[in-house]
Design goal:
Chain A: Its EC number is 2.3.2.23. Chain A: It is an enzyme of class 2 (transferase). Chain A: This is E2 ubiquitin-conjugating enzyme. Chain A: It holds the Pfam family UQ_con. The complex is a heterodimer of chains A (161) and B (268). Helices cover 22% and strands 14% of the residues of chain A. Chain A is of the alpha+beta class. Chain A has one domain: Ubiquitin Conjugating Enzyme, CATH 3.10.110. In chain A, strand 1 and strand 2 form a beta hairpin. The longest helix of chain A is centred in the N-terminal third of the chain and has 16 residues. Chain B has 3 domains: 105 residues, Serine Threonine Protein Phosphatase 5, Tetratricopeptide repeat, CATH 1.25.40; 73 residues; 68 residues, Herpes Virus-1, CATH 3.30.40.10. In chain B, strands 2-1-3 form a 3-stranded antiparallel sheet. The longest helix of chain B is centred in the middle third of the chain and has 46 residues. In chain B, helix 2 packs antiparallel against helix 3, helix 3 runs antiparallel to helix 4 and helix 3 runs parallel beside helix 5. Chain B has 268 residues and is mainly α. The chains are: A alpha+beta (161), B mainly alpha (268). Chains A and B meet through helix 1 of A and helix 9 of B.
Chain lengths: 161, 268
């Protein structure tokens, strides 16, 4: 999967762009610790740099998240993936897809990019081992046609990690 | 007579749909000639003029329509737009406000009422921009006059000793603080979080309270219930539309806030 495969690139609705502008402003004055928003001219795709928290398996490592917003954000969840190389983690596939319930079934419009980032960092921080999900190869093979993780029927591993 | 006028109007409507504005205007004019006391003929013609951006004609037709039917929200609305074009903000706000009130009594939570609110908010913001820059300019002038008066005074009384320069700078600093405070309400900052919806991040227009005690913008929450599911977006407690209660206290607080901080209308 390449970073350019996005299902639909419909323009953002008025509510969505309004809200994203507010999120950008909020991020600029109060960015979540460990994250850096890489400024580009697109409101609809954010690239965010994550740095592993001190004292965890990912200390000092940096990764890039790609966040794509659907037309009806925030009623619909953003698509959040790691741009490969993705961190080695039991819930992160080698193509960058992340198995995290709030990105799919448990999304709520009251969440923000910032709160999603914090969840992802806490998922990284609590990882017991640097390894891929058991079904990594099969899953990644199934995604070869550029399928979005939002089309996956996720079977959430557990909520301990 | 009545039938003929009605027919002219139908022809006008057909032309309008095909974007033949000139022909539509002619048909409505004929309908008006046959039956000048029907408000709809005037508002329909005004709509054509609006599309052609002939704002004085829009204004004239809407005023005629309102003489015939004071509750025509279309006439109030288009008259408001015409006045906005003329930069008559007070007039525009009054007309748009009437249109909004009428619309809200017909369809309280419809899209049209929301749209009207946005236009009204825009007008109020434009009015604020104008009055606040005037106000700012006048304050600035007054401040300069005061500063100069202080300087002159201390110059004339220089013989009063070494403490004079200190005294002067202290007075000038105080003056600065006073004027700073006076212009602060006009400085756009952030709307407090408790006046903003957790979904839209905008200041509330129609806040509703859920059984979890959280307030949302009605239209955004209804959209959430429809597309995401029947739960409170923050607490995930089960939630149905029938459980929502208008939050009048917050609504009042929003109105108070907007009165003091006109810049906050800039959200539409």
């Amino acid at each position: 999967m390449t970073s350019s495969s996005v299902p639909s690139r419909k323009v953002l609705s008025k509510i969505a762009s309004n809200r994203l502008q507010k999120e950008v402003m909020e991020w600029q004055t109060n960015p979540p610790a460990g994250f850096k928003y890489k400024v580009n001219d697109s409101l609809q795709r954010w690239i965010i740099e994550v740095t592993g928290a001190p004292g965890t398996l990912y200390t000092g490592e940096t990764y890039q998240l790609q966040v794509d917003f659907p037309e009806h954000y925030p009623m619909e969840a953003p698509q959040v993936i790691f741009i490969p190389p993705a961190p080695l983690h039991p819930h992160i596939y080698s193509n960058g897809h992340i198995c995290l319930d709030i990105l799919y079934d448990s999304w709520s419009p009251a969440m923000t990019v910032s709160s999603v980032c914090i969840s992802i960092l806490s998922m990284l921080s609590s990882s017991p081992a640097k390894e891929r999900p058991a079904d990594n190869d099969r899953y990644v093979r199934n995604c070869r046609n550029g399928r979005s993780p939002k089309e996956t029927r996720w079977w959430f591993h557990d909520d301990k990690v | 007579m009545e039938k003929q006028a009605q027919m002219r109007k139908e022809v006008g409507n057909a032309c309008f749909r095909k974007d033949k504005l000139g022909a539509a205007i002619d048909s409505y004019t004929e309908a008006i000639a046959l039956q000048p006391n029907v408000a709809v003929y005037w508002t329909n013609r005004a709509l054509c003029f609006r599309k052609k951006k002939e704002w004085t004609r829009v204004e004239e037709d809407c005023k005629r329509a309102l003489q015939l039917d004071r509750n025509s929200h279309k006439a109030h609305y288009m008259l408001g737009l015409a006045l906005l074009e003329k930069e008559d903000y007070t007039g525009a706000i009054s007309e748009l406000g009437k249109a909004w009130d009428i619309m809200r009594s017909i369809a309280p939570h419809g899209e049209k009422a929301d749209e009207l609110w946005r236009v009204l908010a825009k007008a109020k913001f434009m009015e604020w921009e104008l009055t606040s820059s005037e106000h700012h300019w006048r304050l600035q002038n007054l401040k300069e006059v005061c500063e100069n008066a202080f300087r002159e005074y201390s110059f004339l009384h220089e013989e009063s000793g070494d403490s004079a320069p200190n005294y002067l700078s202290g007075q000038l600093q105080l003056l600065n603080e006073v004027f700073d405070k006076a212009s602060r309400a006009d400085l756009p900052t952030d709307v407090p979080d408790y006046l903003c919806c957790k979904i839209t991040f905008d200041i509330f227009t129609d806040p509703v309270l859920t059984p979890s005690g959280i307030t949302y913008e009605r239209s955004a929450l209804l959209e959430h219930l429809k597309t995401v599911g029947n739960v409170d977006p923050i607490t995930r407690q089960p939630l149905k539309e029938s459980q929502l209660i208008p939050n009048l206290a917050i609504k009042g607080a929003v109105q108070e806030f907007l009165k003091e901080h006109g810049w906050a209308y800039n959200m539409a």
